[in-house]
Specification:
Elements (H helix, E strand, L loop, with lengths): L2 H9 L16 H53 L1 H21 L6 H14 L3 E7 L3 E2 L3 E12 L1 H12 L5 E10 L5 E12 L6
Antiparallel strand pairs: 1-3, 2-3, 3-5, 4-5
């Protein structure tokens, strides 16, 4: 049967007379259309009910695969450089330990004040006063401020600052004020700060 004949046969069909129970005697063109429609419905339902879910799972699997590959590459890089990292950790521990040694302990603060006083006298300064101020607690360390009041000249002050910087303990100098004192001498008030590591019981 040609395509034209099939179309002509479809035109002659009275759809009101069709009975689903007598589908076997329907025209061939109509049965073909019905079969094709059923197949398309089955394929469509199969896609939306099964294939689409599988496709989504495949996409998720591909994304997960890329993430795992990136994670693997990152860990492989770390593993390849593990020895270098271990060596760096050893060096950092040694550096940190050396820095901690430069921070005075509570029992060493009086000795540090004596060292600063000796540096002042050795620089030709007259020590008027040196006083500890209240501690300032930070997240990882405790700051120990020291008020220093000395008299001398500019060269003596320079020698004093250099001497304090050379102390084996970490001491920083801040907020100095220099004023004229009696005669040709000058008066300098300066804040020194030293630090100690914050013990675990203080954190």
């Amino acid at each position: 049967m040609s395509f034209k004949e099939s179309l002509s046969e479809l035109k002659d069909i009275d759809f009101a007379d069709l009975d689903i129970q007598q589908i076997g005697v329907w025209p061939a063109a109509l049965k073909t259309i019905l079969v094709v429609s059923i197949v398309l419905v089955i394929v469509g339902l199969g896609y939306f009910l099964k294939v689409k879910d599988i496709s989504l799972l495949t996409e998720r699997g591909a994304v997960k695969e890329r993430e795992l590959l990136q994670e693997y590459q990152s860990k492989a890089f770390l593993a390849a450089n593990l020895d270098a990292y271990r060596q760096q950790m050893i060096e950092l521990d040694e550096t940190f330990g050396a820095l901690l040694e430069q921070l005075p302990k509570d029992t060493e603060v009086p000795g540090l004040l004596e060292d600063i006083t000796e540096v002042a006298y050795g620089s030709g300064l007259v020590m008027k006063s040196i006083n500890l101020q209240p501690e300032k607690v930070s997240e990882f360390y405790v700051e120990l401020p020291i008020k220093i009041d000395v008299t001398g000249d500019y060269h003596d002050f320079g020698s004093f600052v250099s001497g304090v910087a050379s102390l084996p303990r970490i001491v920083t100098l801040h907020d100095y004020v220099i004023k004229q004192s009696d005669g040709s001498r000058l008066n300098m008030q300066i804040d020194a700060k030293t630090y100690r590591y914050k013990a675990e019981v203080e954190q």
